[in-house]
Write a structure and sequence with these properties.
single chain; 345 residues; alpha/beta; Four Helix Bundle (Hemerythrin (Met), subunit A); Rossmann fold; 2 domains; 7-stranded mixed β-sheet; 11 helices
Length: 345
Amino acid sequence: MKTIYFEDNMVKYIDQTLLPAEYKVVSCTDVKKLEVAIKTLAIRGAPAIGVAGAYGIVLGALSYNGNNKDDFFKIIKDSENIKNARPTAVNLMWAVERMMRHFASIKNNSIEEIKKELVLEAERIRKEDAEINRQMGQYGHPLISTGDGVLTHCNAGALATSEYGTALGVIRAAVEAGKKIRVYSDETRPLLQGARLTTWELKEDGIPVTLICDNMAGISMRRGLIQKVIVGADRIAMNGDAANKIGTYQVAVLAKENNIPFYIAAPISTFDPKAKTGEDIPIEERDKEEVTHLGGKRIATEGIDVFNPAFDVTPAKYISGIITERGVLKPPYEKSIKELFDNSC
C-alpha cells in the first residue's frame, strides 16, 4: 500500500479521515491544500507528513510558469511554510529542510532543471522512507516470538509512512518470517487512529488483530495477553525520551509495571539533535471538539473545559529499545544515540 506518492505532476494520497468507511485517493496540485491535508490529518504519521512536506516544495515549484528566477525563488521560499503545519513531528521539518538545502545547491540551474531536480529529491525521500521501514522490520522482528501478543498504540503502519510502516513494519516482518502472532490495537482516543486505521491495515493484510479500548491495556497485560509493546514516535530526544501519540506514556508505564518490553520503531530522521531531553519537544494541542464530539455528535457537556494535547513524552527509562534502520538501540541512550549519529556522519 502506498500512502502518498507523486504521479502525473500531482501528489496523490489516501485520505485517512475517511477510513475505514471509505477508501479514497486524493490528487493535489496546490501546496496550500497539501498543508491543509496535513493539518486536518488527511495525511498523518511522522514519516508520511515528512514525505508530504517534500512534495509540498515540489508543488510550489511546479506552480510557477514564468521565467523570472526571483519570482520563482519566492514561490519556493513561501512553500517552505508547509514545515509549520504541525509542530511535534520532526520528520516534517527534516524533509523540508533537506529539500531547501538541495534547492540551494542547484539555484544556478535553469528553472526547468530546478523543477526536475526537486521532483527527483522528493522521490528519493519517499523511496528511502519505504526502504528504511523494511530495514527496521528486519532489525526489529527478532524481538518478536511466535505466540506473542503485541500491543500497539495509534497507527504506525503503512498509513503513517510512504509504505510498509514503522511499528507495524516490524510486525509485518515478523509475520513474513513465519511467526504466528496476534496484535492488540488500542483504539487511541480522541481520533481513534488505532480503531480506524491500524485495525483496517492489519485486517487488509490478514494479520490477526484484537481491538481494545485505551483503558483496557492494563488488564490485557495482567491477564497475559500481551508479551511485547511496539509503537512509533514523532520525535526522539538525544537522551532517548520519545514523543508519540497521546496515551503512549501510560502504556509504557503499564508495560514496565508488568515486566513487558516496550519498544519504539522510528527512523533516524525522527531523532532531533536540538532536543536534549523530552522537555525540549513541543507538544501540539488540538481543537477541543476532537474530545467533545464523536462523528460530529456532541458527547460531552456543553461549555466544559477541555485539555487536548496530541502527543505525550515517554521518558527513556521506560523504553527497552529503539528500533532504527541501523539496528536496535539500547540504554543508556545518551551513549547509543550519540554513537548512531557519529556513525551516520
